[in-house]
Specification:
The two termini are 23 Å apart. The chain is built from 15 helices and seven strands. By secondary structure, it is of the alpha/beta class. Helix 2 packs antiparallel against helix 15, helix 3 packs antiparallel against helix 12 and helix 7 runs parallel beside helix 8. The longest helix is centred in the last third of the chain and has 20 residues. The chain has a five-stranded mixed β-sheet, with helices on both faces. Strands 2-3 form a two-stranded parallel sheet. Bound molecules: pyridoxal-5'-phosphate. Pyridoxal-5'-phosphate binds next to helix 5 and helix 6.
Length: 385
């Protein structure tokens, strides 16, 4: 393998694997048959029939030995569990918000937040909504509006360091218009999953925060990949090279009034999430909603052991060795694909490489879904989902 342009450290996994799981073999003929039975829908494949499953990073990773050890200490009391207090202490230490509400995953945090703060006809601006975030906004009869910077949508634009940023001028325009009264909340997604997984700069978060607070509107961060975003700020934004990822994370959240979080991403667990905020009245409302659908306020939709695993994962995800490896590994994959002339979005974000399937397969017209066709072909030829 060609390793030019990568430091040794990028390649060296900062962990040791001490448990293995058997993978079944499939033949090409079996894969064709399975795909036909699944109506060419890779989501309907059984995971045992896949050798390399890249469907998502959400909740699919292996946990650390410290997380497994913490799981054994999980306290499953219905109310007042010490596992909750441990979880709450870690979340408050990193995110800094006064109220911490556990949920079974990120979308539950979104649903509760929006049900408690939106009404029909409202507008929610975001650098770009993740699909569940948009769906939860729209379920409340509100409209999800995306304000990415123009360069994010232009594949010929010069590569920027923070392509995930929000277009502050479009937000300013909305907030100085009559439509401002329909904006009860503004969100920024870090990193910007819908648009290439690109990072958002501290300066952008600060500017959006200032604008929101000038207009008296709370800013919430969709924090799913906050640690990766902190790493990009450390390595790309002036003035942050000497800061730790923890310090950077604390500063990012200091500009916000709350956040939603899927711990299945940068919580490094298989299930979990939370909603956090400073506003006490809103927190009370959210907790009442939580009890109806997720569970009591000290466990949300989770077991005590899950809360323990999140508490450890949120600390481990901020370790520099881990972040350097994670972001470097994604860059390595993008570089290898590029060497093989596969068009990918560059520079890549922190958690995925986005292939431009339409550019890779120009002979397949858009109406025949080139990205879908590529996904099916990858399974048949490469055993990859
Ligand atoms: C995954 C994700 C969510 C939703 O979280 P779930 O845990 O899957 O419900 C929301 N926003 C972003 C940016 C995400 O990546």
């Amino acid at each position: 393998m060609e390793l030019t342009g990568h430091s040794y450290k990028t390649f060296f996994e900062p962990f040791r694997i001490k448990s293995v799981e058997r993978i079944q073999h499939t033949t090409r003929a079996q894969r064709i048959q399975r795909l036909q039975e699944a109506n060419y829908n890779p989501f309907k494949l059984n995971s045992e029939e896949i050798t390399i499953d890249l469907l998502t990073d959400s909740g699919t990773g292996a946990m650390s030995s410290d997380q497994w050890a913490a799981i054994m200490k999980g306290d499953e009391s219905y109310a007042g569990s010490p596992s909750y207090r441990k979880f709450e202490r870690v979340v408050k230490d990193i995110f800094g918000f006064r109220h911490v509400i556990p949920t079974h995953q990120g979308r539950a945090a979104e649903r509760i937040l929006f049900q408690c703060s939106l009404k029909e006809g409202d507008l929610v601006p975001n650098n770009a909504h993740f699909d569940t975030t948009r769906a939860n906004v729209e379920k409340c009869g509100a409209k999800a509006v995306n304000f990415p910077i123009p360069e994010a949508l232009d594949s010929n634009a010069k590569a920027l360091l923070f392509t995930g940023n929000m277009d502050v001028s479009r937000l300013a325009e909305l907030l100085s218009s009559k439509r401002k009264e329909y904006v009860p909340i503004v969100m920024i997604t870090i990193t910007n999953n819908t648009i290439g997984g690109y990072p958002v700069s501290m300066e952008n978060i600060k500017m959006v925060s200032k604008l929101c607070h000038y207009h008296g509107i709370p800013l919430f961060l969709d924090a799913c990949r906050f640690a990766e975003n902190a790493w990009f700020i450390k390595t790309r934004e002036e003035g942050y090279a000497h800061c730790t990822p923890l310090q950077i994370a604390r500063e990012m959240f200091s500009y916000a009034d709350g956040c939603t979080m899927s711990a299945k991403k940068d919580g490094l667990v298989n299930i979990g999430g939370f909603l956090a905020m400073n506003d006490e009245d809103l927190a009370d409302k959210c907790r009442r909603e939580l009890i109806i659908s997720e569970g009591f306020v000290t466990y949300g939709g989770l077991a005590g052991r899950d809360l323990e695993a999140v508490a450890v994962g949120l600390r481990e995800v901020l370790e520099e060795d881990y972040l350097q490896y994670q972001v470097g590994f994604v860059k390595m994959l993008a570089d290898l694909l590029r060497e093989h002339r596969i068009p990918v979005l560059t520079p890549p974000g922190g958690h995925a490489v986005y292939i431009d399937a339409a550019a890779m397969l120009p002979h397949i017209p858009k109406e025949q879904f080139p990205a879908w066709a590529l996904g099916c072909a990858l399974y048949v030829e490469g055993k990859i989902r």
